[in-house]
């Protein structure tokens, strides 16, 4: 089981009105920061999110509660602090690409998922968080560093 991190901030955070991209919003995983590339900008990784993919690289279940998740991302909607300092990897979500670096399959079946995530954020859309986490996992596997933490 892969658990990359857990972030818990006030439970009163709003959950609606998810932006697809927030300028300078980063997700720290390990020694790197992952961010969604601005629309039209080049990216280090291209991710296709395809719920119908027969053989995705990663299957992710969007959990309905933190207790059902391996990874929890909750924020209070404050302006992001920016992406300065560490290695920054940009991720582009492109549903139409024919040659993505990674295919993420969203599944409604938590038992069939590689990762189960709970997202309650005004900064990250659930799909954006799924793309960033899947990319971090892919990057860690390519470099032989899969982060594993247990509760």
In words, what does this structure look like?
There is one protein chain. The chain is mainly β and 151 residues long. The chain has one domain. It has one helix at residues 126-142; strands spanning 6-7, 26-29, 32-36, 45-49, 58-62, 71-74, 87-93, 102-106, 115-120. Strand 2 (26-29) and strand 3 (32-36) form a beta hairpin.
Shape summary: globular
User: Main beta sheet: strand number and arrangement?
Assistant: 9 strands, mixed
Q: What is the CA-based Rg, rounded?
A: 14 Å
Number of domains: 1
| Mean of residue pLDDT values | 78
Structural class: mainly beta
Multimeric state: single chain
Structural features:
1 helix; mainly beta; disordered C terminus; 9-stranded mixed β-sheet; 151 residues; 11% helix; disordered N terminus
């Amino acid at each position: 089981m892969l658990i990359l991190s857990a972030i818990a901030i006030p439970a009163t955070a709003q959950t609606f009105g998810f932006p697809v991209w927030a300028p300078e919003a980063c997700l720290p995983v390990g020694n790197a920061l992952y961010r969604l590339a601005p629309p039209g900008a080049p990216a280090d990784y291209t991710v296709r999110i395809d719920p119908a993919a027969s053989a995705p690289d990663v299957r992710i279940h969007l959990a309905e509660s933190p207790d059902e998740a391996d990874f929890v991302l909750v924020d209070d909607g404050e302006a992001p602090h920016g992406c300065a300092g560490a290695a920054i990897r940009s991720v582009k979500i492109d549903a139409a690409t024919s040659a993505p670096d990674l295919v993420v399959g969203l599944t409604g079946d938590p038992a069939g998922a590689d990762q189960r995530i709970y997202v309650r954020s005004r900064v990250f859309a659930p799909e954006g968080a799924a793309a960033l986490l899947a990319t971090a996992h892919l990057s860690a596997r390519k470099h032989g560093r899969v982060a594993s933490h247990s509760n």
